[in-house]
Design a protein that fits this description.
about 260 residues
């Protein structure tokens, strides 16, 4: 029951889905205390997109159109939470000359050239990857891939949050607290299992290995990049990490198909 509670509280933050206030009774109010539920929340918030994918498949809609609608649904369901973080990171990291200036740019609600390009390119890549997957594997496997990669990327997000220090005092991630190692490890293990099962069913052991290598490279590389640019993590970098790992997981599968 505690895990379900964590999931529902996480879902309230990670999506635009309305969650009953009763789920928050007796809690500390800190998001970091509920991070075990992040992967499950990721799986749950992907269900509208997965259902739409199934409908499009059944009516024999074009793969590109289907993939586009699925990605749009995922963005709408989360309120573009992670996409907003990615855009802010791109603007800040490439537009500022110092850590202080980068953090200032990231906090600005306006979007610059780097952020716009990051959103366009990653959206195109997500659509292209899903189009290829739709063309190569069956409906059941594709639905599992959407659900599994959304779950796995949230689990990796938690571990990233836990291992890096807060770069902005008073920011969203800072005020939410820091996940403890046991909760972060639980989320990470869930991510590994979810990703391995869904990718393995579609592409076999090779898909698991290639996706794991790409995702590990992205995780480690982006972690070091964040430390170099701003000295740690913020809520924006958590969103960017989720986008990156979703892409690398699906890219690993596509390479092996």
């Amino acid at each position: 029951m505690d895990l379900i509670t964590d999931m529902m509280r996480s879902l309230a933050f990670l999506s635009r889905i309305n969650i009953a206030p009763s789920w928050f009774e007796g809690g500390s109010g800190k998001l970091a205390d509920n991070v075990r539920g992040f992967p499950l929340a990721g799986a749950l918030l992907s269900l509208p997109a997965a259902a739409l994918l199934a409908i499009c498949w059944l009516i024999n809609l074009d793969e590109f159109v289907t993939a586009t609608l699925v990605v749009i649904t995922l963005i709408v369901t989360t309120g573009a939470l992670h996409e907003d973080g990615l855009a802010d990171v791109a603007d800040g990291f490439f537009g500022g000359g110092t850590a202080e200036r980068r953090l200032e740019i990231m906090k600005d609600s306006s979007i610059g050239s780097y952020g716009a390009l990051a959103l366009i390119l990653t959206a195109l890549l997500r659509i292209a990857l899903l189009t290829t997957i739709l063309d190569e594997v069956d409906l059941f496997q594709t639905v599992l891939i959407v659900i599994g990669t959304e779950a796995a990327s949230r689990g990796l997000l938690v571990k990233f949050w836990q291992i890096l220090p807060s770069a902005r005092k008073g920011g969203v991630a800072d005020t939410a607290g820091s996940p403890d190692a046991s909760a972060a490890n639980f989320a990470l293990i869930f991510a590994i299992v979810a990703g391995s099962i869904t990718l393995g069913l579609a592409g076999g052991p090779l898909a698991i290995v290639v996706a794991a290598l790409l995702t590990t490279f992205a995780f480690v590389g982006f972690s070091r990049f964040c430390q170099d640019k701003i000295g740690g993590q913020t809520g924006d970098t958590l969103g960017a990490l989720q986008q990156l790992t979703t892409i690398t997981l699906q890219l690993g599968l596509v390479i092996t198909l």
